[in-house]
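It would be a great kindness if you could assist me with a short task in structural biology. Thank you for your consideration; the sequence and its tokens are set out here.
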Amino acid sequence: MSEIDTKPFPRLALIAAAILMGGSIAAAAAGRMAQSNSAETEARQTMKPLAARDLTFFDMENGAVEVRDTFGEKVLYVVAPGTNGFIRGVMRGMARNRRAHELGQEEAFRLAEWPNGRLTLEDLATGKRIELGAFGAENRVAFAQLLFATTGSST
């Protein structure tokens, strides 16, 4: 019997091979993700929305949320207290993000409908963008109605 048959395989060589394979897989995945993100960003920059509106959201003392058009500062829509939890939840998350960046509620949000059917809400102060259709058609409609709301609409 030879010495090769009785000696175990060197542990260090196995560890090095595992690290090399893991690193290769991670590098390939990172490259692929960077490529798809840059393609998506490029497509997003060249695509123009079908409709867009800059809105501000203000919490009122009675629990309502006023949605105002930033151009005329008219109240377009009032979310009555205790209603429309989706709008409230999304805006709570956006407000939390602004507080983390030490920003106020004055800066507008851009609500946009895209040719591919997407509806997005972008915080113009932080750059954070949310795909509203990802939460279901019914929740998408809650924000879609704000694109075309006229003065004084409410739920």
About this structure: Residues 3-46 form one domain.
